Amino acid sequence: MTTPTLCVCNAVDTLYDFAVRADDVDALLSECYAQQDQALFWGPLDKMLITYEPIGDLDWQRKFLGLDGVVNLSPAGRTGSLFADTLADPGLMAAVVAHAGPGRRLRLIPHTTTTDLWRFVEVLRTRHGVVVELPESSPQQGLRDLLDTKTGLRDLATDLGMIDGPCRIPPGTHCSGKHEVPEAVQGMLTTGMPCIVKADRGEASLGLLIFRPGDDDITERLAASTFYDEDPVVVEEFLDGDIGFPSVEYMVPADAPPHLCYTTDMLFEGATHLRGNVTARELRDRWWYRPLTEGGLRLAEEMQRRGYRGRFGIDSIARDGVVYMHDLNARRTGSSHVHEFGAHLIGPDYLDTHAVGNYDFYGLPAGLDLPEVLRLLGRLVASPRHADRGVVPTELTDLPTGRLSCMFYASSLAELHDLIVGARTALGLDR
User: Fold this and answer.
1) pLDDT single digits (tens) 52-91
2) Number of domains the chain contains
3) Are 154 and 294 within one domain?
4) Does 313 share its domain with 256?
5) Burial tier of 8 (Cβ tally within 10 Å: 0-12, 13-18, 19+)
6) Residue 168 — very low, low, confident or very high, per pLDDT cuts 50/70/90?
7) β-strand 105-110 against 5-8: which pairing, if any?
8) What distance, in Å, lies between the first and last C-alpha atoms of the chain?
9) Do 69 and 206 sit in the same domain of this protein?
């Protein structure tokens, strides 16, 4: 008997404590809540999803993509910990126990392994007799939390000697708090090196500060930012020019060697605004592919040796024959669902025939609804169950705010990028 799967889509949990420092916290969290929709493609297609709020236009997605086995429930409260909110909702807990079925077992896939996950698992075991399998959760919570920081990546790579060579961390330093940052920034600028300032636990490019030689407003800009306090800060070289943004995701099992899940090319608007990801067989021919995947495997093997288990992603910048690792996400990432969309809806060997990606469109009219999106996109919209190329509107929870995410699939990267341009034009964003 197959163990039922439960996905707890707590994408906002890793960001919550940091995002509340922002002036526009409601807008930031709204976008994070919409990321819950990505879990439609995590693990098996038949599953229960717990999300902060009901997934937008789920009935249409069920019918269009054949997701009849998806059950979506949400807790009554919203505190910034989806596991805690679920525990506080008796009706939702009863539904989770019922989902475990007569075998009293669940396979749990979270976005992020948090402290409250372990409390949730313990309550299921002791009060309800439900055993929970956790194939993507590291039992060492402190290790996971450390690796998910900017200093955690830099320390791990340094321990492995990855401060030089074809895959490395950028030149930089740690600061114990913002009071040390001006001196660190000035030290790099005096050598002619532009630099970027990152909060240790920062997420989603929030609060990043970029300084270039000649800037004399370091202290003022740092003081004006709400994202810096006395938490650790990383100051490292800001890499620009002729660059690429490859990313890679690995799975670290409990009792088998780590393995590569996929690689993507991240699509940025400007220096810090991520808009999408694409994966394709053509990426294997890029000059950065071998150094990044080999470097990532070195990290994965060391993380496993230290006791880590689960998925993690590495975001990097490729320039002048060197891959610079600048972020490690010790969890599922914003592109995990891209790979699984392809594997589920095209086939496990989809990369032999297709390129797949996602892209987020901003600036659409507030109050936009799905029927109008479908009208605008017209014949571009097609299900991979019935077509070789097409566009699929997804993450529709955030659509009323004027943000639309879409999945794209085509026979090549060039064709996929043409689809993205076509969708942008159809949505009226090039006027």
Assistant:
1) 989 999 999 999 999 999 999 999 988 878 999 999 999 9
2) 4
3) yes
4) yes
5) buried
6) very high
7) parallel
8) 55
9) no
